[in-house]
Amino acid sequence: MSIATELNNLAANRDAIKAAIEAKNPSVAPTTVLSSFPAAIAAIPSGGGGDDEPKPWYGSGTHIWMHFEESYASHIFYFRINMLVSGTATIDWGDGNVESVSSSPSEQTITRSHTYADGDYTAHITGYDECQIVRLSADGYANRATLNDFFTQIESDTTKLAGNGNGGYSPMPSCRKLRHINLTRCATISNVGIGAQKNLVTLLTPKVATISTPWPDGSVFYVHSLDFPMLSSISGTPFRGLRVCESIKIGSAGLTTLPNNSLRDCVRLGSIVLPTSLTSLGDNFLYGSFMFGGSIKIQEGITSFSGEALRSVLAVEIDLPSSFSSFGSSVWAMNGVYCLERLIVRATTPPTLSSTNNLSSLQSFCKIYVPYGCGETYKAATNWSAQAGKIYELNQDGTIPQA
Q1: What is the pTM of this model?
Q2: Which CATH number does the domain housing residue 304 bear?
Q3: Who contacts 307 (Cβ-Cβ below 8 Å, separation ≥6)?
Q4: Does residue 115 lie within any of the structural domains?
Q5: What digits encode the pLDDT tens for the residues 141-154?
Q6: Which of 103, 175, 358, 396 fits 83 for a cystine, CB–CB 3.0-4.6 Å?
Q7: 90: three-class secondary structure by DSSP
Q8: Can you give the residue range of the structural domain that contains 307?
Q9: Domain boundary among 145, 175, 208
Q10: Model confidence at 391, in pLDDT bands (50, 70, 90)?
Q11: Which of 208, 231, 252 is the last residue of a domain?
């Protein structure tokens, strides 16, 4: 191949890369050399910049991305923060206006408002050491949902989200267009910290260790998926009655018990992952939860059910660990599991059944799988004998035999 041909191919490749980058929004100057292309590629917005994709977050600080519709002549946005240490912060309102905000030991709760014209804006606050979001709203009142439609994405390195404790407001009010909340440093969420969002797609909480709420339902997290890799303390029932949540994952971070009714009435759940440190599920753990087709796997370390733990769940498979020793004192612990196709019990000693009614909801198509070599023991055990016709043995490796 001649040098001229190689140069032509190099130029064509360069032009192709330039066109691909510009198709993702960042412009590339005609004189840009190839060694500068990686920086241009790094500036491409996450996911290509679609409406359902998070926008890029550069640097550190709190960002609120807003879109104001043309139905209002002007729009006042309130950003109220509690600076946990005295200092000076800077608010860049995203429309060319910047202001400095100072706090002191006697005045650390600061409210600032700004009026926008129609359009898209990213408000950005930096310069503080620690910040607690107290309220974000478009009109000063978090319960006026019509004006809260402005917020599309919130990204923050705040260390704490907290409502006022009496239901007056959530720091992140209900926002029908809010799609993404990214909390990179937040360690505590309390008192309806997120609010009843309508279309939230992602809630990133990599460092949240404590969640507390006095409310009896799951209005705190109106989101399709929850992932708390560092959660070690829960009080109240922040996960009860989640109306749209399909999966919940709690990492192994020292959490040993769940509150009573912790995951009750989560009707769309299809997947749960709980930490290996857990030793107690609390009363009525999954009462009325799980959508049809879901599979429930209870992790090792759990020894029994408390209350009506799995009553009326629609799962097709329940997998109980080798540590499981009792279905508890309530005959309703697994009442109403009419969709169940497989009950896997991995304990070599049959767990205690207080009554034949414990498993009376199992339909004729349901199979009970027990450890290899333990089938006859289960069929002869107290109150298990009533289910003898449904009992089968697992393979030696713990898998379900193929039909």
Answers
A1: 0.72
A2: 3.40.50
A3: 260, 282, 283, 284, 285, 287, 328, 330, 333
A4: yes
A5: 444 434 456 667 77
A6: 103
A7: strand
A8: 292-403
A9: 208
A10: very high
A11: 208
